[in-house]
Amino acid sequence: MAGVRKLALEESLALGPNWRHACHVLLYAPDPGKLFGRIPLRYAVLMQMRFDGRLGFPGGFVQLRKESLEDGLNRELVEELGEGAAAFRVERADHRHSRAISGQHIVTHFYVKCLSQEQMTAVEMGAPHAKDHGLEVLGLVRVPLYTLHDGVGGLPAFLENTFIGTAREQLLETLQDLGLLESGSVSSIKISAFHQ
Known about the structure:
- By secondary structure, the protein is α+β, with helices and mostly antiparallel strands.
- It has one domain: Nucleoside Triphosphate Pyrophosphohydrolase (Alpha-Beta Complex).
- The protein has five helices and eight strands.
- Strands 1, 2, 3, 4, 5, 6, 7 and 8 form an eight-stranded mixed beta sheet that branches.
- β3 (about 40-50) and β4 (about 55) form a beta hairpin.
- It starts with a strand and ends in an 18-residue tail after the last helix.
């Protein structure tokens, strides 16, 4: 994506007051289930349908004058996901990368948090009761981490959706980095020149 550059977290925080900071998180949990009794699910990875019809990750803009990145992100999670998100906390150790979007004076901070199955279930069950449900967030979706025999169904079809900003690239990069996909399942999927 043009005008996007990777920054160290400390460098991003020193950019000055005319930059806005947005924090988002990929939440995932082990999932021992099987689709149709035969396709291993392996992990549940959450994304959300946003108000604009695009897929993205939970989170939003934070107010650095009033809160830390993580405090703002955790506040956003409770607003968007409900009380299930209050049972865990995204910490600085969960931070993956920061990127500056120069034309918009926005810095994005991306986090990854592994939850227990119980925490994931609580988030999914509580999300329809969250303050922003039906407004900013239209619903949660699980990312299919498999490819069906036709080579299209599952993750390849999911990736044909419209994503906000760099969410598609963040998803693929994270799935690959954490080893959440079956071997070879992203071989035909272009991850893009996102590794800058």
